[in-house]
Every structure is written in C-alpha cells, then in structure tokens.
Amino acid sequence: MNPPLLSPSRRLRRTPFSDGVEAQGVKAYTVYNHMLLPTVFESVENDYRHLKDHVQVWDVSCERQVEVKGPDALRLIQLLTPRDLSKISANRCMYIPVTDQNGGMLNDPVLIQAAPDTYWISIADSDLLMWVNGVAASNGFDVTVREPDVSPLGVQGPKSDDLMSRVFGDSVRDLRFFGCGRFDFQGHAMLVARSGYSKQGGFEIYVEDGAIGMSLWDALFAAGQDLNVRAGGPNLIERIESGLLSYGNDMTRDNSPLECGLGHFVSDVQLSHCFGGRAMAEERATGSAQMIRPIAIHGDPVSRCDRIWPVYAQGMQVGQITSATWSPDFQTNVAIGMIDRAHWDAGTALEVQAADQIRPCTVQDKFWG
Amino acid sequence: MNPPLLSPSRRLRRTPFSDGVEAQGVKAYTVYNHMLLPTVFESVENDYRHLKDHVQVWDVSCERQVEVKGPDALRLIQLLTPRDLSKISANRCMYIPVTDQNGGMLNDPVLIQAAPDTYWISIADSDLLMWVNGVAASNGFDVTVREPDVSPLGVQGPKSDDLMSRVFGDSVRDLRFFGCGRFDFQGHAMLVARSGYSKQGGFEIYVEDGAIGMSLWDALFAAGQDLNVRAGGPNLIERIESGLLSYGNDMTRDNSPLECGLGHFVSDVQLSHCFGGRAMAEERATGSAQMIRPIAIHGDPVSRCDRIWPVYAQGMQVGQITSATWSPDFQTNVAIGMIDRAHWDAGTALEVQAADQIRPCTVQDKFWG
Questions:
Q1: Residue B227 carries which DSSP code?
Q2: Which terminus of chain A, N or C, has less C-beta within 10 A?
Q3: Looking at the partner chain, which of A6, A249, A308 has a beta carbon nearest the beta carbon of B29?
Q4: Is the predicted ipTM greater than 0.95, yes or no?
Q5: A233 and A186 in one domain?
Q6: B119 pairs with which residues across the strands?
Q7: B335 with B367, same domain?
Q8: Which tens digit of pLDDT belongs to each residue from B200-246?
C-alpha cells in the first residue's frame, strides 16, 4: 500500500509560513492543534543529518498560544499547574505541566509573560484553551482567554546563533536557555526565546501578526545561504535520541507529570491548591507505579511506531513503547516507553512487540542526545 | 508539487477499524479529534457516486464520545447548550450546539443517553472534554467526565436499511431519524442510531469495546456483497450539496449558533442560564449580522478550498467561503459561506476570490441535496 495522503481542508489550518514551506518542497505533514506541521522535506534521515550539522527554519505555528489576559491571569494559571510560577518574568519562559483534577496531563506547554498581566501558554497538541476557559468562566476570574494571531517560527541547529544574529543583531546570542526578550525585525519588536523542540540549540520567534510571517521567513533564508539553511521541522530521530517527550505520543491525560519524569516541575507547596494536587502528592509519597524511560530496541531498524507497542517481561506486559526509530548516529533503535516500577532500572532486559516482531530491548540509563 | 503525505504516529490514533480501512485501500486521511478519519478510497468523485447509489461502511471512530456520568450529568450538560434537553430519552439522539460564555460555538455534537445518568456527547473536531471537565471540576458537579472506548461505525447510503437489517434484524428499519436503540450483534447489545454525516440515509453504530470492531466490520461486508457495499467516509461533495456543516471548516469559536443557522436549537428559556445565553439573547433580539448560506460558484470546477476564500460585493468584503467543490450531479460548484446580512438574500450576486481566480457566485435559496 502507498503511504496515505493528507486531505486538505480549511479545518487543517495553513500557517503564515505555508507558502514558504511548500516552496521548499515539503513532502509530509502531521496535524497538530488543527494546523499543518511540516515533518519531512528530503527524508527523515537527511533532515536529521542536516539539523545536527547546520541550521533549519521550522514552521511551528501549530504551537498555538492560549492568551490569558487580565488582572487575575497569573492567579488562574497558577491554579492550572503544579509548578511554582513565582519566578516568572518577561525575561524567562517556563515549561509547565498542566493537570486536571486527577493529576492527569492535559498539556505540557511553555509559559511566557508577553506583557504585564498578559501570558501566553504555548501549547502542545490539545485544545487547552477549553480547559483554561472552562475554569475561568466557572470561577469568575477577571481574564479573557483567546487564541491570538501569534505563530512561532523555530530556528534550530548548531548554526542557529550565527543565523539569528544576522537577522536580529548580536545581542540575541546573549539569551540563555529558556531566556526570552524583544528583538527588532524591520520595526517589529519580536518576542524571541532560546528554546525549541530539538537539542541542537536554537530559538523560537513568536511572530505576532501572520501578515509579516513570510518577510521574516525570507529574511532568514536570505541571511543563511552560506550557512546551508534549509526548512525543517521537529525530527523524529533527533527528538527521541534527545528524550523530548511528545504529548499525545508518550503521555496523555492518563499520565501524571511524575510518571513522565517531570517531578522537578512539581512543587510541594503548589500541590495544596492546584488541580490534581492531592493525587500528585499521594503519588509522590508512595512513589510512581510507572515512569517514562529511554529504551534501546535491538536488531535491525524497526518499522514506524504508529501505535502502542506492548513491552513484556517473561510474557507479562510491564509497559509500552510509544515512540521508536532507528538512530544512524547511535546505531540502535532509540525508543521512549512507559515502564512499570519493577522493571524500569537501567540495564533491565525486556521484550517489545514491535509491529509484527518480538524484539529484545533494554532500559537505558539516559537518553542518547 | 505532489500532494503531501501524512506522517504516522501514535498521536494520530488508529481506530478499531483501521486494519479494515487499509485492507480496502484507503488513499487519504484527515485527522479529526487526534484520530485517523478516512476520506478517500477510489477518488472523491467515485466515492460520491457510490455513496449516492449503494451503501458504504464508514470508520467514524473519530466522533469520540465525551461520557458524562453521575447524578448531576444532565444538569451539567443543560448548562452547556442553549437547546432544551427536557425531551431527551434513551430512544432519541439530540443535536446540541455547545457554546462558551460569549455564545461562541465550541462544538456541534450529538447527545445520546447511553444509560440512566450516563450521557455520551458525540463530538465534532475539538477537545470538548476539556471544556466539560473544566466546568465540572470548577462547580463541584457530581459527575465523572471521560472518553470511553466507544467508536462509531457509520452505514450510509440508500441501501443502508437493507444491509443493517441483515446484520441487526428487521426491527432496525423501524428507527426514525435520530431515533436510537439497542440491537444485538453476536451477543452484544449495540447502540444504533438512525443518523450520520450524509443525507443519503443511514445509521451509526456505537461500538463499545474496540476489540469487537473488526468482527462487526467483517460481518457488514460479508452481508452486503450483493449490495455492492464498500468502505467510504464523509464525502466532500455530498456533504456540501446537503448543507452539512463542518466544525472547524464552516464555523469556529468565533461564530454563534444563530449565525450558523442553528436557531431552531436555541431555546429562549435556556438562554437565561446556559453559557453564552445573554449574548445569544441579544443576537436574537437584534438579528444576526451574518449567516451561513449556500452559495453557487460559477464557471469551471474550483480547486480545493483549503483556506478561507473572501467574498466581495463591489470590491468590499462581505463574507467568506469555507467549503467548496464541483458537484457532478448539480453541474455547478457548491459552496458553504458566511455572508453579511445586507448580502445574504437568495439570488444576490457576489464575487469570490477562489484560490487565484476571482469568480462570480450567487447566494442560493437552499442547499442542493
């Protein structure tokens, strides 16, 4: 069977950069927050090699913003996450697990203070706006909750600083990891953060006003010709090597932040009043029953992991793998899985039902990237 | 450029019927509620012809259920919709616009009473569970809100009654439009409704427990061989001819139910206490500023409508088209658009920017199908 096509419709929203993405010959998309997210240009493997060696421009407009604006904005957001937000500032992004009343993950966004009393929650793939607004509307918070015209553009790869400094000036080099600030592009003070969904270094530019998107896109490509700049996107191989979790793939509403290895974002003090705090406090006290772990799957390259692959110990299911692919650099199949406590120690030998093959696999000490 | 492929991942969830869909040679998917929805088997045109002449089995598992269960379930749901739910019963589905505090559409689902104090909200493409649960968690309603293992399977087309009666018995023929009941399949009392996303007649079977999905799929194909049964899916041409609105295409959170022509589902009595009631009452009093209308676009077949097409009167924008395609049966381009009050009368001649062409178009009296 040929790989399936994606049927276009307005519902699968185009982005301010879609014309540029198409001109660069996008071969495949995924759909993320009801929007097109380019996934492949040359091939997953070639895009991976290029990302690790050069610099890429990523259309990650699908990281939509839930804007919470008003005098009660921070108070509302603090209710939504177990992370302590007291150190939020205009110069710093924060990764915040968002949990429901049972401590289940609703999203794992990045929080940014865009202006006084104005926050952007830069979301993974779920309609978090509905939860935020449901809580806001039901509790009489003095806020407005909306999706603004803001589309992040990623610049990722080892030459990101060189490219960005040519377009935004040398001061952009001074941003620390998850630091952010305003930088001028053609008279627009754009919010730029040192962040992004790879571990190759890079930035995300929060483009306010889609109409100027292609000017920035074109400027980055013009400035980066000698840096071998190309269009790219979140890369399956690189993100698994690097242990970057994907909401909807590696974790869902059925998982707590602690199970996802996000315990350092869970503040004991916050657990007394955030949604799901009691459940998370109990889990912290007793220890998690399962945890996300890096797993090496042995043998030849596995086929595409498009569904849960059960993991077994002596024939009993003890976990599942949700992301997996062959890594050219590490010469093994790299994978992300959720494994029961009795089997999650590094070095534990297990088996995985990978598509139609049973494969030996081993829990790793850490991710590869 | 070749049409883009869809990158597979666990996040784009497979369904209990995906193996069957692939065996039938699915050519294209869309993504709907984070799940695969087959859109094309032979071609959009051939699938359309077949749907109107024969019978198709549709994998519409992506119509996920938001299950609201508990003593406060109906009281909570009544807060979420302007429709009067006092006549809900186990024998009747209800189409319910769901609105936020400003009267904006969050979803346009079908509500079913699956058991006493257990309701399924069968959703269009948005994570309505987040809104329902946000309201529930914030107001102390005694309910649980979850997505159960329920996957609708559609049987659509003029021979639907013949096929369904062979599998579920002749009594299924007695269901009236939007009537529902329990019918036996291999010892499972399955919830069946006379409903579906076409106007060719048909049913939706709410398959509880994905593990039995393929047995039902196979039974339908075995029973329907001489009826020329095939796999199909919501068909772009047929649904526009028939005026079946698509959430995310033809309406979003920016639109009220009244603008969407859903005023007959808005009860004046409910407006005093449902979310967005005040805004809808004001709109009803003053009249809507714009409304969804059927529109014929003249000339040759238009290209695929994958973004908003602005509609003009004497060079001023007076609306937008969000769904459009060539209709073989009506020999015109059929379209759905949102048009300002001054221009929405049937017969009004307008112009539309359809991709790179300006085309004359005319507001129609009614949809075609």
A1: G
A2: N
A3: A6
A4: yes
A5: yes
A6: B68, B113
A7: yes
A8: 999 999 999 999 999 999 999 999 999 999 999 999 999 999 999 99
